[in-house]
Amino acid sequence: MIKWIVMDMDGTLLNDENRIDEQTRQILIKQEEKGVRLLLASGRNYRKLMDYAIQLKMDVYHGMLIEANGLAVYDCMTHARQKKAELNKQDIEQVFKLAQTYDLELIASLDDGLYDYFSENIRQSKIAYRIENNFPEDFPLTGGHRDWISDNRGGYPNQFFAERLEAFPDACNKLCLTHFPTRISEVFEALKKALNDEYEIVRTSPRWVEISPKGISKGNALTALMSANHIKKDEVLVFGDGENDCSMFASAGTAIAMGNAMDIVKQAANGVTLDNNHNGIAYAIENLEQITSKHE
Q1: Mind listing the UniProt keywords for this protein, alphabetically (predicted)?
Q2: What CATH number does the domain containing 156 carry?
Q3: H helix intervals, the chain
């Protein structure tokens, strides 16, 4: 019997317009009414998750958030928050040098803001992209999980351009490296070789790499929450689309990849559902046995 449903956000629960489809929302609320607990597990922090949690009534039904790839957990009902670790200035310096070496954009994420570095070459490319796509002149140049530029001001109100290492803060929650998908593919193995022994490094989308403190992962956070709440592995259903979701797949009895998921995620799953623009989560909940039996 499923007691917990755990969902990644971008590319999983959210469609490409950053919304929860109404069919999916209604089915998830019905699950809560039956006693199932919902957990959102994301690279985002709680400030960028709570609006969605409220849409799902997780503040009423005692839902939980796994933030910043497992860096913190947040109780939607009590608002209690437990933060596990952070990256320091030495960590930032190491990744900053890699961003310079490979000409990548570097974003340092904090609870309420971010620091963004990119070269003049990248700046000119972003400005051209903004013009070509008819974005307003004040639209931020900060890279996004799925686009060359994105507006994160709602969840990260304090945003700064860091032209030099000295402009970065003394600590942050995570570091993100981004560029065009082809460029990330070219340098990803080199990044892992440089960082993997000291950090958790995952490619969460074709254009996005996230670096977290060693031992911090969605899967470790989920396992700890399961232990604290006496939840068994076969009582957990997980949905995801990115490499950072695979650690959760190992913690859950049933892991479902979205139709739009990266190939490595589909291979790690017990089944594959429809994509995030076609109510993949809702479809899987209603057809779980059929989806998982196809994968056996």
Answers
A1: Hydrolase
A2: 3.30.1240.10
A3: 22-33, 50-55, 89-102, 120-132, 181-195, 218-228, 246-251, 263-268, 280-286, 288-294
Q: Which two tokens stand for residue 50?
A: 């709570």
Token readout for 61 is 């039904």
* Segments forming the whole domain that contains residue 18: 4-84+216-294
Considering the domain architecture, whether residues 119 and 234 belong to the same structural domain is answered as: no
And the tokens for 19?
């919304």
Q: What is the pLDDT of residues 29-72, one digit of tens each?
A: 999 999 999 999 999 889 899 999 999 999 999 999 999 999 99
Secondary structure (3-state) at 207: coil
Write down which residue in 189, 213, 237 finishes a domain. Answer: 213
Rounded CA-CA distance 241/42 in Å is 11
Q: In terms of residues, how long is the chain?
A: 296
| Nearest C-alpha neighbor of 160 from the set 117, 129, 120, 189 | 117
**Tens of pLDDT, residues 238-292:** 999 999 999 999 999 999 999 999 999 999 999 999 999 999 999 999 999 999 9
Nearest to 184 by CA among 172, 176, 196, 174: 176
User: Which of 213, 232, 263 is the last residue before a domain boundary?
Assistant: 213
Nearest to 280 by CA among 20, 18, 2: 20
DSSP 8-state symbol, 235: G
In degrees, rounded to 5, the angle at the alpha carbon of residue 23 between the alpha carbons of residues 20 and 26 is 90
The domain spanning residue 245 has which CATH number?
Answer: 3.40.50.1000
Q: Based on the domain organization, do 93 and 175 belong to the same domain?
A: yes
Question: Is residue 20 domain-shared with residue 44, that is, in the same domain?
Answer: yes
